[in-house]
């Protein structure tokens, strides 16, 4: 067993540990024994992950929890819907859950957000554990308690803050993750460097490829640094108060969520791909407004592009030519928007982000307007 590192999320009586190491799914019984003793466990996994990691997890938890049931949900963003939630709750209730039942989300961001929201509302709130199996979920969505589903009005528009009781990050599962998914998660890793840690961004410029190519030390380092950064922000501003620091984690997401909504959650644009293109748009908007420089914005774009992530509208709209009007129509529904004003997370410089509610819509339109190909 290789080393396991612990990152604490300090939230008074809702504090929890994020455990990071290779092989943690195999050791889940031991890792979760204190939480599960005498209680029912319901594992929720998506269909792809169920085929890969569910048997080992159920084996490990059997005899530790009072009973272990497993439910599967479809893979992909479209599962994160009101219908998907209703179906999952129905199946959980049919299992005879009680208020001591622990829900365990095994999978990527979609599974964690959906199962976490189901745990938040079933019997008015059940304990839950996150076992994220994608890089994106490991460095971002499994930490911080944002749970929810998408609606036809946009991404994550219905949900709840519901903190997990523990997060188990098994870095070995990344070995079976498709490259495209790995890259999408890498966008969120880069985000931490861009918004608050220039030194980490520089490290990623030098080591990002090692991480993507499977170097275990580089992976663990990037995951631990990312989780530490997220844990600090969440501890400072758990519920994303207006003007509070948690909104900084939304860098790239105002544009990114609009891109995802335009794409229709059909798998053609992954969340992390939308965030990558969204971060570049936000950085270029920052450079237009200052004081961020064009060099900083293009340095971010260059790194994302070098690893193979999309950095422009043309790369994400697959010839559908989304207009500024289309995208702004989605951005005004963003949860950060206040009194009809879109709130952006912009860069003051690479490594330092700020929240801005005073951005002129004409500047956003000018950034998004593209000449139509003849
Ligand atoms: O945890 C947060 O806070 C974030 O904003 C992290 C984001 O990377 C993540 O995608 C989050 O789920 C987006 O939240 P939303 O409030 O913009 O829906």
From TrEMBL:
Cofactor: Zn(2+); NAD(+); Co(2+)
Keywords attached to this entry: Amino-acid biosynthesis, Aromatic amino acid biosynthesis, Cobalt, Cytoplasm, Lyase, Metal-binding, NAD, Nucleotide-binding, Zinc
Record EC number: 4.2.3.4
Any one annotated GO CC term: cytoplasm
Pathways involved: Metabolic intermediate biosynthesis; chorismate biosynthesis; chorismate from D-erythrose 4-phosphate and phosphoenolpyruvate: step 2/7
Cell location: Cytoplasm
Domain of life from the UniProt record: Bacteria
One Pfam family named in its UniProt record: DHQ_synthase
CDD domains hit by this protein: DHQS
GO biological process: amino acid biosynthetic process; aromatic amino acid family biosynthetic process; chorismate biosynthetic process
Domain 3-dehydroquinate synthase C-terminal, first and last residues per copy: 185-337
Residue ranges constituting the 3-dehydroquinate synthase N-terminal domain according to the UniProt record: 71-182
Manner of cofactor binding, per the entry note: Binds 1 divalent metal cation per subunit. Can use either Co(2+) or Zn(2+).
Residues at which Zn(2+) binds: 188, 253, 271
Swiss-Prot/TrEMBL catalytic activity: 7-phospho-2-dehydro-3-deoxy-D-arabino-heptonate = 3-dehydroquinate + phosphate
Chief site of localization: cytoplasm
A molecular function (GO) term: metal ion binding
Residues annotated to bind NAD(+): 109-113, 133-134, 146, 155
Function description: Catalyzes the conversion of 3-deoxy-D-arabino-heptulosonate 7-phosphate (DAHP) to dehydroquinate (DHQ).
HAMAP family with a match to the protein in the record: DHQ_synthase (MF_00110)
Family under the similarity heading: Belongs to the sugar phosphate cyclases superfamily. Dehydroquinate synthase family.
Protein name per UniProt: 3-dehydroquinate synthase
Organism annotation: Thalassobaculum fulvum
Highest classification ranks of the organism: Bacteria, Pseudomonadati, Pseudomonadota, Alphaproteobacteria, Rhodospirillales
